[in-house]
Specification:
The chain is α+β, with helices and mostly antiparallel strands. It contains 25 helices and 11 strands.
């Protein structure tokens, strides 16, 4: 007989997968509503100056634990539906993966997306609120610019009081209130007043911003985080999300513009805006508000100067009246003497007639009383006298926003390249030059063009050292070649200008006209327009919020993505014409970042990071959670006996306890929890059988054979991989 060779040993690898889905033992991811705040009573409602953040639902849906026994021998373990020798806690190898909720509802992302939808609307404010002015009332109010022209006409058909801007606004407000019932107001009055109060009086509002992010608004072309524009963007988003959507936003904008007009008419500065001309690095709305603030500052300064001037005149008149009453005509009081020439000097169109007696002398450089001097210019003296050269007090150039600069560039470009067009273009750009020439002549009587050029454009005055007849070295100078070109504009301007100090010149910057232009521009904005102006500020706030939240979690991958997002936002928001599709994709990226941060926060809460006293274990858990967010499956160091494994075990125990308690309540059982298993039944069993067998003949080379089996609740799979020796077969 023949002897049968013993069967080769079979190596078995077993992997059980357990699924954890119950997170009921953990707190809700959002704080409960605070009914005492402006936006109280809403999920995620926060105090003013902050954006909400986080998920409204659990961002992690499942945790999958795979326990593996990689090397088992057949016959030493028993595993069936009734009994199993395989204890998950004793498995030598654990690995974990998590399944996130697809598109979880996150507050910051919802805020951004709902606000972005406003930018795509087509309706006007009047269409939304239903408060369009009738044709007759429209004729009464008219266009602001035409009303201003009527105010300046020498003979008006109607009394000035009825044509004043304040009267027009008063009529408009009465019309609005007449058509707005209290119960129909889109925005609650208390909320509206609170928003306007906090926006225009930001005392106590603190917007945290690290030193490295102070200039982020320049990169994003938004506005500083402590500015009115930035706060308005936050208000608009909160009102849109919590208090009525589009109608409430349109209502808030309308009230905002009315508040701006009230401040302009009453000389109240707008707080939260830096002093100076519009910052072209910021968004257009911020520039417009800066322009309005400049107008208010100029108007206040002019009014204060006029008050001081009037006060000085009154005291002078009183003194003159007591000492020289004989010079006053009998029966004629001092109040009847008009000082309109001094009071309205900035708006006079007949200034030449008023100063006609001095014109010839000023043009010829004859001596007149100097006026409007600031201080001497170092050691320089006038060329035709020994008098020191004085720097004059000049008017500040007219501030301009980027849209006005674009309009001006278009107008100048349309003049063409002809000689006439070039000359006209130069004349249009010379308003500031003419004003400075007049101021210089007033401050330096007897001066010549060369004196002005030495101060105003030193490079156009060429000096050289020469030896005179006596052998002495003297310095002489002359105008540059371009100044000597026939028809040079500087020469023509110098010959026509007169000596007028800055305080008596026509204003280069008409604050009244510019303020009304700004207010008109804001008043006619559609919701899609002003929300698009505010969108960079809201995205700025969202990025700051994401960086703030990420700093708490310290996720390297998220930190890298945020830096890439900043670079993308800089290119996107600086483009004059925004691409709505690209903007939406960018907002989706921010929503993804928020989702990852909320997932990290959820996992850290479940693994108790920051609660233990062991620093090494805490760092190991941080690394484990961070890897879990970036890798599809992560090995658990120490399996069930390590720090992460112990927490995972506790998670399953708590879930089993909750499930068992619920089942006992349903069944009315009094022995709840007795005999409870730490782990639920495996959601899947995987078996891998490996051996080496000579095939197809006993004397063939032994080759590996594999059989793989998967057992799940509603699935069974069996796969084999068999090999045979083909050398002689």
């Amino acid at each position: 007989g023949c002897t049968l060779s013993p069967l080769p040993p079979i190596n078995i690898a077993i992997r059980f997968t357990y699924v954890l889905q119950d997170w009921q033992q953990y707190s809700w991811p959002q704080q409960p509503p605070d009914f005492d705040t402006i936006f109280g009573g809403e999920v995620g409602g926060v105090e003013f100056g902050k954006l909400p953040f986080g998920a409204c639902e659990e961002p992690i849906s499942e945790l999958h634990l795979a326990t593996t026994w990689p090397h088992l021998t057949e016959g030493i373990v028993v595993d069936n539906d009734v009994y199993s020798d395989l204890d998950p806690l004793q498995a030598p190898h654990w690995s974990v993966r998590v399944r996130a909720v697809e598109n979880p509802q996150c507050l910051l992302g919802d805020f951004l997306m709902e606000f972005f939808k406003l930018c795509c609307t087509k309706e006007s404010t009047e269409d939304i609120l239903g408060r369009g002015l009738t044709d007759e009332e429209g004729k009464d109010t008219g266009d602001i610019s035409s009303a201003l022209s009527k105010l300046t006409e020498p003979a008006a058909a109607a009394p000035i009081s009825k044509l004043s801007v304040s009267n027009m606004v008063h009529n408009a407000r009465k019309h609005i209130r007449r058509h707005r019932h209290i119960d129909e107001s889109p925005l609650n009055t208390d909320v509206l007043n609170s928003i306007l109060l906090v926006s225009f009086h930001p005392s106590g509002v603190i917007v945290p911003c690290s030193a490295t992010l102070e200039n982020l608004y320049i990169q994003l072309k938004s506005a500083p985080s402590d500015s009115l524009t930035y706060r308005l963007a936050l208000c608009m988003s909160l009102v849109n999300f919590y208090h009525g959507g589009l109608r409430a936003v349109a209502h808030l904008w309308q009230e905002f513009v009315l508040e701006l007009r009230y401040r302009w008419e009453n000389n109240y500065l707008i707080y939260g805006l830096p002093a100076g001309p519009p910052d072209l690095r910021c968004c257009l709305l911020f520039q417009k508000l800066q322009m309005l603030n400049c107008c208010i500052e100029r108007k206040r300064a002019r009014d204060e100067a006029q008050k001081m001037k009037d006060g000085g005149k009154e005291s002078t008149r009183a003194s003159t009246a007591s000492t020289s009453t004989r010079e006053v005509s009998p029966g004629k009081s001092w109040d009847s003497w008009s000082d309109s020439d001094d009071e309205f000097f900035e708006c006079l169109s007949d200034q030449g007639e008023m100063d006609g007696s001095h014109t010839e002398g000023e043009k010829n450089g004859s001596k007149t009383k100097p006026d409007g001097r600031l201080h001497p210019s170092n050691n320089m003296t006038l060329l035709n006298s020994t008098e020191p050269l004085y720097i004059p007090i000049t008017q500040e150039p007219a501030p301009m926003t980027e849209d006005l600069l674009e309009e001006q560039s278009e107008v100048l470009a349309k003049l063409g390249t002809s000689a006439e067009g070039a000359h006209l273009r130069a004349r249009m750009q010379s308003a500031c030059l003419l004003s400075d020439m007049e101021s210089f002549k007033a401050a330096n009587p007897g001066c010549v063009l060369e004196d002005f050029v030495r101060w105003y454009s030193p490079r156009d005055y060429v000096e050289e050292e020469v030896v005179d007849e006596k052998g002495n070295v003297v310095v002489t100078g002359e105008l540059s070649a371009r100044m000597k070109i026939p028809g040079n504009m500087w020469v023509e301007a110098w010959e026509t200008t007169r000596a007028i100090p800055a305080r008596r010149q026509r204003r280069l910057f008409d604050d009244t006209k510019e303020a009304e232009k700004v207010l008109h521009y804001l008043a006619v904005q559609k919701p899609a327009d002003f929300t698009l102006h505010l969108l960079p500020c809201l995205l700025h706030a969202a990025i700051l919020k994401l960086k703030e939240e990420e700093s708490f979690e310290d996720i390297p991958s998220v930190k890298k993505v945020i830096q890439q997002t900043l670079s993308q936002a800089s290119k996107l928001l600086h483009h004059p014409n925004h691409d709505y599709k690209t903007l939406e994709e960018f907002i989706n990226q921010l929503m993804t970042i928020e989702t990852v941060i909320t997932q990290a926060r959820s996992l850290k809460a479940k693994f108790g990071i920051g609660e233990g006293d062991n620093w090494n274990e805490t760092e190991e858990l941080k690394t484990f959670v961070s890897t879990l967010l970036e890798e599809p499956e992560v090995t658990v160091l120490g399996a069930g006996q390590g720090p992460a494994g112990s927490i995972i075990h506790r998670l399953f125990v708590n879930s089993q306890r909750v499930s068992s308690s619920a089942q006992c309540v349903r069944q009315g059982c009094q022995t709840c929890g007795l005999g409870m298993s730490a782990f639920p039944s495996p959601a899947g069993r995987e078996f891998l059988l490996r051996t080496c067998v000579p095939q197809p003949a006993p004397y063939s080379k032994a080759l590996p054979q594999r059989l793989f089996c998967v057992l799940m609740k509603e699935e069974f799979r069996l796969a084999g991989a068999f090999s045979s020796d083909t050398s002689f077969f």
